[in-house]
Specification:
Structural class: alpha/beta
Number of strands: 6
Low-confidence stretches: 1-15
Strand content: 5-15%
Helix content: 25-40%
Shape: globular
């Protein structure tokens, strides 16, 4: 019983901990959620493993041929390996971060991604996204909204998404050279519909 008391006291004391300690705890937990399990990808396939990662981090996925967004980790559909292919990702308010982006490598059918209020999304994430071969082929629509760590460098990196048809950028205070960034994107992707809501 003494051992239990020793363990319980620090965990219960977390609620009274300084705000910095809580932030570090959540940062650590989010990093754990983003750790890539390569054995799991092999066992269940890239779409199922990526679905588990995204839902664990608070994002939503929509599968090819379905209108409903999947948001319940415990309600993930079962069936034959490879039956459910991710078509769209809505990462609004999620904790996805660079560390988990290897889950995106095997996804071949993703046409839409929305990154909104993602505190861990930064330039390196967008560079990694744009270098993902399958996404270079399949991704048609991308929205980046209220991701405070994104700068011009990350947006310019998106020029590698050669099939991108629509890009919406809003509330990105890290973009400081809007005209230059837009010019680079329009030159690299002449067919891109670019919608901006930047101050």
């Amino acid at each position: 019983m003494v051992l239990l008391g020793t363990v319980v006291r620090p965990v219960c004391g977390l609620s009274r901990a300084a705000p910095g300690a809580r932030t570090r705890f959540w940062g650590w937990l989010n990093a754990v959620f983003n750790k890539v399990d390569y054995e799991r990808i092999q066992a269940v396939g890239p779409d199922r493993a990526a679905s588990e990662w995204l839902l664990r981090c608070g994002a939503l996925v929509r599968y090819q041929g379905y209108q409903k967004w999947q948001q319940d980790y415990n309600g993930l559909p079962t069936g034959p390996l490879g039956k459910y292919k991710i078509e769209a990702i809505n990462a609004t308010d999620s904790c996805i971060m660079y560390r988990g982006f290897d889950y995106l490598d095997g996804l071949e059918h993703v046409t839409e991604i929305k990154l909104q209020k993602c505190i861990y999304i930064q330039d390196e994430c967008l560079q990694r996204l744009s270098e993902t071969k399958n996404l270079q082929k399949s991704l048609l629509q991308l929205q980046i909204i209220s991701c405070g760590n994104v700068t011009d460098k990350g947006i310019i990196a998106l020029h590698k998404l050669t099939n991108l048809e629509y890009l919406y950028l809003s509330d990105l205070p890290g973009i400081r050279q809007k005209e230059t960034t837009v010019q680079v994107l329009r030159q690299a992707l002449p067919n891109l519909e670019l919608e901006l809501d930047l101050e």
